[in-house]
Amino acid sequence: MRVDIKPELLNWACQRAGLTAEAISHRFPQYMAWVSKETQPTFRQIEQFAKATYTPVGFLFLPAPPVEQVPIPDFRTVANKKVHRPSPDLLDTIYICQQRQEWYRDYARLLGEPSQSFVGSARIGASVVQTAKAIRDKLGLNIQERQQIATFVDALRRLIEQADSMGIMVMCSGVVSSNNRRRLNPEEFRGFAMSDPLAPLIFINGSDTKSAQMFTLAHELAHIWAGKSGVDDAQASSISGNEVERWCNQVAAELLVPMASFRPEYDKHADLDTELPRLSRRFKVSTLVILRRMLDAGGIAQKQFWDAYHVELERLSSLPKPDGGGNFYLTTATRVSKRFARAIITNTLEGQTLHRDAFRMLGFSKLETFRELGRGLGVIVK
Predict the structure, then answer these.
(1) Stretch 121-142: mean pLDDT, rounded?
(2) Which of 89, 334, 337, 351 is disulfide-compatible with 169, CB 3.0–4.6 A?
């Protein structure tokens, strides 16, 4: 059966997916003929086209291209200007996280779990030092203990575990769901927070560096404390024009690198090329965060900060990207959060959630994978 699809909708689907006409024509040789109306695609071809462009097939039958909005507040900026068009990867990631959060909210409500009192306990503009201390105390985050951790990876894993234990679902993934062909771009977004008194959720873009992920997690924790959902490009070095982002960046920097701990460690007279990596390793944060704290401590001037910032940013951008390898089950638990995974596996085994729904939200389709993940998390004994 042939279907009549408007050319502007075909073009729109390609543009939102970041595909050129030439690229899509390799997959669909008749694409240009569809656009010129010389011929019409079959319904099956349109289904395949929708899948290739990550477009809901129903959108292609609309009278005009829709204007898609990020379903949570969007704080992302490029050159201090709002980012208007979200990618399908970002949208689909938020949608699946919304489904997980909605499921967990209902689960927590049925169990009679109390609301998390820390969600929304701070106000934007409140004392940065006091707010960071409140988060640190709730997490049980000991700066001296973290300084003894060997690597950035271990430090990040420890911080995620602490957030998970206190009631926050922390999901860290570099791909959409479990689709390794759809890698998330940290230049588009670094993370987002979805505030909820029963099911607070943080998502971290796992394609970013581990040290950058550490700051993103701290930034999103500040969002949860303020009760402000949002997707953002968390960077300690940037001075956002948005009050929410500026405050969250300040809280994150103070949380990870308290000024009271930083000043005794920081040698203002040492060579910057030596001191920067040393303090980065010491506090387990990116060199960009350390640069920002050096500026805050009065150790470097604005010009020196920005000169060093651009050099360091270029160096970090040239580093190899994470390959996403490792143990499948550990990776899956990290992608969906151990708190969520344990809850939905337990609930499914009790017959309260369909296996089909659990598989969809966990990102796989095999029963043995489900069982193996349950064993790894200690939910399934045998």
Answers:
(1) 94
(2) 337
